[in-house]
Write a structure and sequence with these properties.
single chain, four-stranded antiparallel β-sheet, 12 helices, 368 residues, SH3 type barrels, 4 domains, Arc Repressor Mutant, subunit A, alpha+beta, 40% helix
Length: 368
């Protein structure tokens, strides 16, 4: 017996004999499938699959109710308590951790299908068994803390989040209305973009979709050998609708390469350079534990003022500048000269601003 993904989805939404409402009409089955992101072209498709599951596979029961046909899945497991009886404590911990750390990033087509397993995990860990105490305690012994000060998360409209996540999961084309950051609104901002959503990434409390534009294919003759792929923050998407079309997932796209090699989430990456820093001993010690690059080198002899010279090949980016600025006076950029000059200008402008602010404060104080 071979079941299609649609068959499996139908079996998951159907009730069983022991439930409060044990029978479900075809219209309700169709609605639940659509809610979970499954694309169903017409109601007859669902009715045919239900009939096949009943007559050929012997997995479904039906009954007549007036002109309607009601459906029920045959019971092989009933509810969280029975699933929990077959679940080990280790499996329960795994499902609990999955929901806690990535549950909000899973599409409804996944979370709603495995919700009984989440509930079963809670039931299994709550049971007073000999192997439950340590497993139950473990879920309160792990957590994740952001490495830097985190600003408040911008709100994402739930319906947009659901649409984008579902389209990414099922590889469907989107029409997206997007508000660009840090610039004046333009006349064509309300014109929806056609996008193929490839992946979802959370970075520093913000959710991004990596998307490819079908309207910008490779044009080698114009010096554009690759597809146009960009990042879109979900909180800046003001409208998102599926076009009803699926797209061929690109074979040359790999999310880990995008993150690690292309470093797009470092924002505006540049050509690699050899970075030379003079660091206070404490910060240099931290880089011994967490290197800034694979070829990092700490000079064994200190500089005349006691600081440590550190070198390494890095990709200049917005995130690199954030890190260097977070070190304050504990770091001095020695090379490359362009980056050193940039920080020197910024530091001079900052010092001027603070001097002006100090004079204004002192003047106001004397006047008072």
């Amino acid at each position: 017996m071979t079941l299609s993904s649609l068959d499996e989805a139908i079996l998951r939404v159907l009730p069983t004999e022991g439930e409060l409402e044990p029978w479900m009409p075809t219209s309700r089955v169709l609605q639940l499938l659509k809610d979970r992101g499954h694309q169903v072209d017409y109601p007859k498709q669902v009715r045919r699959r239900l009939s096949t599951l009943e007559e050929r596979d012997n997995l479904v029961l039906s009954t007549a109710s007036g002109r309607n046909r009601l459906w029920q899945r045959k019971s092989w497991l009933r509810g969280p308590s029975q699933v929990a009886s077959l679940m080990s404590a280790s499996e329960a911990v795994a499902f609990h951790a999955l929901r806690r750390f990535v549950g909000d990033k899973l599409p409804a087509a996944v979370t709603r299908d495995i919700e009984p397993l989440f509930k079963a995990a809670d039931t299994r860990l709550s049971q007073d068994r000999q192997d439950s105490r340590l497993h139950r305690a473990w879920v309160d012994k792990i957590d994740s803390v952001p490495p830097t000060y985190v600003l408040g998360r911008p709100s994402i409209r739930p319906e947009i989040f659901h649409t984008v996540v579902t389209a990414t999961f099922f590889e469907r084309e989107l029409l997206v209305g997007y508000r660009q950051a840090y610039r004046e609104t333009r006349a064509n901002d309300n014109k929806p973009k056609r996008l193929w959503p490839l992946a979802l990434v959370e970075s520093a409390g913000l959710m991004y979709v990596v998307a490819q534009s079908p309207d910008h294919p490779p044009r080698p003759a114009e010096g554009r050998p690759h597809w146009l792929r960009s990042l879109y923050r979900l909180d800046r998407i003001h409208s998102a609708d599926e076009t009803g079309e699926t797209f061929p997932y690109p074979r040359d796209f790999r999310l880990q390469d995008t993150i690690e090699k292309e470093q797009v989430f470092d924002f505006v990456p540049e050509a690699p350079v050899l970075l030379e820093l003079a660091l206070e001993p404490g910060e240099a010690k931290r880089l011994e534990e967490r290197p800034m690059s694979n070829d990092q080198r700490l000079e064994p002899e200190p500089l005349p003022d006691g600081r440590t010279k550190v070198t390494g090949t890095i990709v200049p980016s917005v995130k690199l500048r954030w890190w260097l600025r977070s070190l304050g006076t504990a770091v001095e950029i020695l090379a490359p000269s362009a980056l050193r000059d940039e920080f020197a200008r910024d530091t001079a402008a900052l010092a001027k601003r603070y001097r002006t602010s100090t004079r204004n404060t002192q003047s106001a104080s004397r006047t008072t």
